[in-house]
Amino acid sequence: MKSAVIVFPGSNCDRDAHDAIEKVTGHAPAMVWHQQSELPEGTEFVMIPGGFSYGDYLRCGAMASRSAIMPAIVAHAATGAPVLGVCNGFQILTESGLLPGALMRNAGLKFVCEKAKLKVENANTRFTSRYEGGAELVVPIAHHDGNYFADETTLDRIEGEGQVVFRYGNNPNGSARDIAGITNEQGNVLGLMPHPERAVDEKHGGTDGLKLFESLLGSA
Amino acid sequence: MKAKIHVYLKPGVLDPQGAAVAGALHNMGYDEVTDARQGKLIELDLAGEDVDQARARVDEMCRKLLSNPVIESYSIELE
Fold first, then answer.
1. pLDDT digits (tens, 9 = 90+) for A46-63
2. Model ipTM?
3. What is the 3-state secondary structure of A149-173?
4. CA distance B22 to B12
5. Are A165 and A182 in contact (CB under 8 A)?
6. Mutation site for A-interface testing, chosen from B38, B70, B72 by largest number of A Cβ within 10 Å
7. Residue B28's domain is classified under what CATH number?
């Protein structure tokens, strides 16, 4: 599968994303600067990495979600192609309207950097098909604004549609209903705060994120 | 012309920073504070004289970038 990693000023997980994709696919992804207005020809999988795009000014992900590359990503997502946003990438996806809800300041007001326990809530997605439903994972988190918010109607709807894909075992940030990761209604756009790309090698201290990338590759 | 835009969290959206501010004020003895909400003030300097057009354009800026309608409301003052 031909992949692209989007790079914004302030992205800092772009090389981790690159290495995780290369490890699983055997092919290095294209690194796409945010001021480009088109994805490389033939791109299938787009990953928006973590970091602090635009210094988190105004709102996390707000400025990045209005950058030149975003209309191409929105159009790409509309074709049903897979798009993954991790951490700041998740914030950018909610700010762009590709995913419902918003990510607010952590309820404890502190930056949290730890290994988070996660539960695979829906293993029937193209991002999670290699996991067992209900599987418990340990994946690193590192964020200040990961407190997932949506109104009750939206929460009920996404729960009902199986769009809640990952839930925290031990809610670290105040997220509504312990939500750690969600997809869009069509299931081809996933956003999550934990960093699966930082858990793909024994040297990372764990490989629980690997199956996410393997699920995607398998569905190509 | 100057536009002052207040961006604030919608009612019902939890505001952990506002709650921390209220807690700190209580610790300082300001017991009359029953709630605190923290927002943003954004000031724009605008070229042009047409107030109606300016208001419409600033409103569009608020919807497109300066506020997130999922969690925030805004108000605009022109002077």
1. 999 999 999 999 999 999
2. 0.85
3. ECCHHHHHHHHHCCCEEEEECCCCC
4. 17
5. yes
6. B70
7. 3.30.1280.10
